[in-house]
Specification:
By secondary structure, the chain is an all-alpha fold. About 70% of the residues lie in helices and about 0% in strands.
Length: about 180
Amino acid sequence: MTEHIVTSYTEMMAGIQAQVEALGLKLTDFDDLAGFPSGLSGKVFGMLQVKRLGPEKLFDALRAAGLRMRLEVDPDQEAKMRSRIAQNYNPRQASQSRPKHASSLPSSAVLTRILKPVGRLGGKARWAGKSKAERAAHGKLMVMAREKKRRARKASNAKARAAAHRAANEAAKQASECVAR
């Protein structure tokens, strides 16, 4: 397969499909090779493209087709973007640079994906040495804490409803006094 310049998702899918055809694979066999559910390739590479590949599955498809991706600068597009940047955005000042600092905190999804397996291991290790009575006692404490929070939330909601009710009554009283005058 020769090199293809890809600037859109559709062009990338066409390139992967061309390579699959060049390998002489049926789409059902490609599903198996890429680790996809049966029939996914037909939906992804078909004429209607009913489904799309996310980032992970896209790279699985590239590997299964024997392809790799190389990023390079498109001089024409870079010139257009530099022009738009100069017109619409302030340049970054050197004093704004914070070396060795991330521009944003990791998302909760990333943290969950990374830390969930570690948390499972810790939980299993914690309960491994506990007796059934100790686990039951701890469970009761957790239920009591959950109920305490639920009751506090219920009381807070009741106070908010009462305040709203008083405010509505006060407004109605003032409106009736204005009409009576």
